[in-house]
Amino acid sequence: MLKNAPEFSEEPDAVPVEIADRKAGPATLLLVDDEDSLRTLCRKILASFGYVVLEASAPERALKIVRAHEGPIDLLLTDIVMPEMEGPELATRVLELRPGTPVLFMSGYADAAERLGLANDRRFLQKPFTPDALARKIREALETPSAV
């Protein structure tokens, strides 16, 4: 959840300089989280930074999107702890379909990240997070080859 996060603004000057100056052009992100309110807020934040956001409320739905989407998917942003399938398994299955796709994991459970060895990893974002922290981690993940 984004508790205590700064109020979201759709004003153009709210875009961090590092994102506004990004030269890679628009990127398509697949956002997977079973919590509707967080997924909706993340989609709005990411869209305000110019990203195309495909979203799924469950891993199986995400895999359907990966199979059906004809364009690129430049990054998988997924929660670690979800019903039916955890984020790392989803990432493995996405990478089977789209090798080399960068992955950014997020979780509100520190023990989940520690269990997977991601606690201090650049591929992990601890919830709650601010819009700027989300944007910074997305940019880092887009610029770093996938190691999942």
Description:
The protein is of the alpha/beta class. The protein contains six helices and five strands; from the N terminus they run αβαβαβαβαβα. The chain has helices at residues 17-20, 36-48, 59-68, 87-97, 110-115, 131-143; strands spanning 28-32, 52-56, 75-79, 103-107, 124-126. It has a five-stranded parallel beta sheet, sandwiched between helices. α3 (59-68) runs parallel beside α4 (87-97). The protein is globular and about 35 Å long. The relative contact order is 0.19.
Tags for this model:
148 residues; alpha/beta; 5 strands; globular
Query: Roughly what fraction of the amino acids lie in strands?
Result: 15-25%
- Going across the major beta sheet, what is the strand order? 2-1-3-4-5
**How is the main sheet built?**
5 strands, parallel
Determine the structural class based on helices, strands and strand pairing. Answer: alpha/beta
Report the total helices: 6
Along the chain, the helix and strand elements come as HEHEHEHEHEH
> What is the gyration radius calculated from CA atoms?
14 Å
Q: For the residues shown, what is the average pLDDT?
A: 81
Query: Shape from CA axes?
Result: globular
Unreliable runs: 1-24
Helix content range: 25-40%
Number of strands: 5
Distance between the termini: 25 Å
Secondary structure layout:
Elements: H1 17-20, E1 28-32, H2 36-48, E2 52-56, H3 59-68, E3 75-79, H4 87-97, E4 103-107, H5 110-115, E5 124-126, H6 131-143
Parallel strand pairs: 1-2, 1-3, 3-4, 4-5
